[in-house]
C-alpha cells in the first residue's frame, strides 16, 4: 500500500515510520525546506514524562506516555532514562504538595537525595519529587533519527512540497500538518509556546528538572555539552511572532531561581511556535475516506505521537495489517 | 437580584478562565458553577487579540457575559490601552480593572488604580476595580465613577480566604448600596460562604476551581456555598455570645456542677 504523509513534524514522522515498519510504501511531504523548519516539534522539550504531565493532563496521557517510553528507544538513539526531578522554591512549597497529590510513580526526595541526583542543586532545595521511570530525548536529533530510519526502510521524504490531503497521491493519505491543517477541523486551536536555549559550563544536569511556580510551568531539559532548553509558556493564541519580553523574562527568572549560574549562561536561541490543540487538549486520530487525520498533540508531541502513530497505522492498514509488535508476538508464539 | 451597572444576574459567582487543564474542562466547570459572568484576561491568557480568537470563541459558546480584565498590567497606560482593546474585541464597556503594583504578590497599585478608573469611567467604561479593602481607596474609586467594588480576600492565587474580615465588614457597612465582590484569595467554598455571610454581593474566583483536582465538582461546590452564604445572610444569623444558651429548657434538671 502506498501512503502519503503530509507533514514531517513528530506526528508525521512517527506515523510514517510506524507505517513503513508495517510494510507500507511511505512518502512524507513537508512544506518546509528542511527538517524542522516549520514544525513546532522543533521547539519541543522532548520530555517523556507521563506521570509529571498527569498533574494537569488526562489519564489518557499516562497511557500514551507509557507507550512512548517503550516506542522511542526502539525507534531512535539518544533516549535517556534518568527520570525527572521536580523541585519548588521554599515559599512555593504548597505547589509541591499539590503536585504530589495529583501525580504518582515518584519518590519524595530530601536535600541530600536531590544533591545525590543533581550535585549542582546541592543545598538549594530541601525537598522535591523524583520520577525515576521518566525519560527525555533531544527532539531535533530524534526527528533526524526518525527520518533516517524511514529512509533506511525505503521510505521517501520530500521537502518544500505543500500538498492538500485531497490532491495528494497514494492509496491512503495521513494528514499530520498540525496547526496548518486547522481548516480540516472546526475546533482546532493554537496554543502559543515560547522557549529558550542557553549554554553554560557551570551547571550539569543529568535529567530534566521542573521548578514549580504558581504561574509559570517551568522546566529545564539538558541537551548535553552545557546546552539547556528552558521552557515553556502556554498562551491561548495562535500568534506567530517571536518570543515576547515578558515571557523571556519569566523563563529567565525561573532559570535564575533554579540556579544562579544560569545568570551567566549564553543565550543561544529564543523561539516561539504554536501547538495544535483540541478543546480537551488530547490528540485525535480520525479517518475520513482515504485520509486519516492525526492532530491536536498540544504540548505532548513526543509523549503521545507513538500511540497516535499506532492508531494511524491501525486505521490505514486495518488492525490485521500486521503491527510489528503483533508480528513479533506471532514469531514468539 | 444582583445588579451590576443595570444588568441583572442570577448567579453570584464570577469565574475566571485561566489555568484550567483544558478549555473543555473550563466549559464544564463554568456550566457546573451556573455562573453568568466569566472573566477573561487579554494579556496573560491570549497574547494579541486576533490570534486568540479561537479561545474567545470557546468562551462565547458558553453564552455568559464576558468581563474582560486587565490582568498583568503594571501601569495606568497599559491598563487603559488593554481596556480599550477589550471593549473593541468583546463589544462590552465592562472592564475588570487591575493595575498591579507588585509583580510578586500581584497586589493592586491603588494609586494607579484610581487614576486609571478615572480615565476609563470618563471614557464611558463600566469599571469593576480590583482593589484592597482600604476604605479611603474605595471612596476614591466611587468618586472616580466606579459603581462596583472588588476588594481582595487575600492575594491572588493564595487560597487563604478572607484575610481581613474586619476590613471587609467595615467596607460593607460603609457602602451598603454599592455592589461589593470579593475578588482573589478564595481557596475553599467555606471562604466564599463566609464572604456572602458578611453581606457581600458576589464572589469572583479562578484558581480555586481551575487548579482543584476536579474543577467541575469544585465549581459546583462553590455555587452551592455561595447560595448558602447568601441565604444565611438574608436569614439574619444569630449573634455570637460568650456563654452557652441551651436550646432546650434546663429548668427542673438536677445540677451536677
Automatic annotation (TrEMBL), chain A:
<dbReference type="InterPro" id="IPR036188">
    <property type="entry name" value="FAD/NAD-bd_sf"/>
</dbReference>
<dbReference type="InterPro" id="IPR006076">
    <property type="entry name" value="FAD-dep_OxRdtase"/>
</dbReference>
<dbReference type="Pfam" id="PF01266">
    <property type="entry name" value="DAO"/>
</dbReference>
<dbReference type="GO" id="GO:0016491">
    <property type="term" value="F:oxidoreductase activity"/>
</dbReference>
<dbReference type="GO" id="GO:0050660">
    <property type="term" value="F:flavin adenine dinucleotide binding"/>
</dbReference>
<keyword id="KW-0784">Thiamine biosynthesis</keyword>
<dbReference type="GO" id="GO:0009228">
    <property type="term" value="P:thiamine biosynthetic process"/>
</dbReference>
<keyword id="KW-0560">Oxidoreductase</keyword>
<feature type="domain" description="FAD dependent oxidoreductase">
    <location>
        <begin position="2"/>
        <end position="314"/>
    </location>
</feature>
<dbReference type="InterPro" id="IPR012727">
    <property type="entry name" value="Gly_oxidase_ThiO"/>
</dbReference>
<comment type="pathway">
    <text>Cofactor biosynthesis; thiamine diphosphate biosynthesis.</text>
</comment>
<protein>
    <submittedName>
        <fullName>Glycine oxidase ThiO</fullName>
    </submittedName>
</protein>
<dbReference type="GO" id="GO:0005737">
    <property type="term" value="C:cytoplasm"/>
</dbReference>
TrEMBL record, chain B:
<dbReference type="InterPro" id="IPR008867">
    <property type="entry name" value="ThiG"/>
</dbReference>
<dbReference type="GO" id="GO:0005737">
    <property type="term" value="C:cytoplasm"/>
</dbReference>
<keyword id="KW-0784">Thiamine biosynthesis</keyword>
<keyword id="KW-0808">Transferase</keyword>
<dbReference type="InterPro" id="IPR033983">
    <property type="entry name" value="Thiazole_synthase_ThiG"/>
</dbReference>
<comment type="pathway">
    <text>Cofactor biosynthesis; thiamine diphosphate biosynthesis.</text>
</comment>
<comment type="function">
    <text>Catalyzes the rearrangement of 1-deoxy-D-xylulose 5-phosphate (DXP) to produce the thiazole phosphate moiety of thiamine. Sulfur is provided by the thiocarboxylate moiety of the carrier protein ThiS. In vitro, sulfur can be provided by H(2)S.</text>
</comment>
<dbReference type="GO" id="GO:0009229">
    <property type="term" value="P:thiamine diphosphate biosynthetic process"/>
</dbReference>
<feature type="active site" description="Schiff-base intermediate with DXP">
    <location>
        <position position="96"/>
    </location>
</feature>
<feature type="binding site">
    <location>
        <position position="157"/>
    </location>
    <ligand>
        <name>1-deoxy-D-xylulose 5-phosphate</name>
    </ligand>
</feature>
<feature type="binding site">
    <location>
        <begin position="206"/>
        <end position="207"/>
    </location>
    <ligand>
        <name>1-deoxy-D-xylulose 5-phosphate</name>
    </ligand>
</feature>
<comment type="subunit">
    <text>Homotetramer. Forms heterodimers with either ThiH or ThiS.</text>
</comment>
<keyword id="KW-0963">Cytoplasm</keyword>
<feature type="domain" description="Thiazole synthase ThiG">
    <location>
        <begin position="5"/>
        <end position="249"/>
    </location>
</feature>
<feature type="binding site">
    <location>
        <begin position="184"/>
        <end position="185"/>
    </location>
    <ligand>
        <name>1-deoxy-D-xylulose 5-phosphate</name>
    </ligand>
</feature>
<comment type="similarity">
    <text>Belongs to the ThiG family.</text>
</comment>
<dbReference type="Pfam" id="PF05690">
    <property type="entry name" value="ThiG"/>
</dbReference>
<dbReference type="GO" id="GO:1990107">
    <property type="term" value="F:thiazole synthase activity"/>
</dbReference>
<dbReference type="InterPro" id="IPR013785">
    <property type="entry name" value="Aldolase_TIM"/>
</dbReference>
<protein>
    <recommendedName>
        <fullName>Thiazole synthase</fullName>
        <ecNumber>2.8.1.10</ecNumber>
    </recommendedName>
</protein>
<keyword id="KW-0704">Schiff base</keyword>
